[in-house]
Amino acid sequence: MHKIIILDDHTLFRIGVIAILKNESSFEVESEHQNFDSLRPLIPSLSSHVILVDISLPKESGLEVVKYIKNVNPKLKVIILSSHKEEFYLVNALDAGADGYIHKDAEPEELIKGIKKVVKGEKFYSLEISSLLINSMYNRPQKGMLYLTNKEKQVIQFLQDGYSSKEIADKLDVSPRTIETHRANILNKFGLKNTTELIKKIVEQKINF
């Protein structure tokens, strides 16, 4: 019997996932949690097989939750559930130690298949996510997948603080044109149109750099 824990702040989504998992005789939903506060104290002693973690939680980033779980109890398997298809989230989920990444549009059969594979020690990514991963590696074989550079992270932090491109350029001792290039690259990586959308996403998703 595979024991499963669900961490997601949307009640209806949890109910739906539980209903799907109950159709599989080898699965047992051990508990469900709306936020990480109630789950955190249990992590060190948990013997569950898989924890399904929403990437967007009320108080913290699901990516940070994955890192915490893997640091405290590495034997636990963690699958990210996400409505995000951007490469940034996938790359950072892998870095955090996630054992799988399943898009919330995935079919029930795909969720069940993913859990079974992860329990066996394999990695699993839902169909759309797998395509993204393959395309990413194929398009940039010399560098691997697309990460934010240290300079891009600096630029984002300055943008969050309200600095203009010229002010950031002065602080980093580069030309304003260079900062504009960084901004364009950052927006492209996130799949966004402007800096306002970028800052909003960072705040909403509690992304740390």
Mind explaining what this structure looks like?
- The chain is α/β, with parallel strands linked by helices.
- It folds into 2 domains: 138 residues, Response regulator (Rossmann fold), CATH 3.40.50; 56 residues, Arc Repressor Mutant, subunit A, CATH 1.10.10.10.
- It contains 10 helices and 6 strands; from the N terminus they run E-H-E-H-E-H-E-H-E-H-E-H-H-H-H-H.
- The chain has a 6-stranded parallel sheet with strand order 2-1-3-4-5-6, with helices on both faces.
- Helix 5 links the parallel strand 5 and strand 6.
- The protein is elongated, with a radius of gyration of 19 Å.
- GO terms for molecular function: DNA binding.
- InterPro entries: CheY-like_superfamily, NreC/VraR/RcsB-like_REC, Sig_transdc_resp-reg_C-effctor, Sig_transdc_resp-reg_receiver, Tscrpt_reg_LuxR_C, WalR-like.
- Keywords: DNA-binding, Phosphoprotein, Transcription, Transcription regulation.
What is this structure's SSE topology?
Blueprint: E1 2-7, H1 11-22, E2 27-33, H2 36-39, E3 50-54, H3 62-72, E4 77-82, H4 87-96, E5 100-103, H5 108-119, E6 124-125, H6 127-139, H7 150-160, H8 165-172, H9 176-190, H10 195-205
Parallel strand pairs: 1-2, 1-3, 3-4, 4-5, 5-6
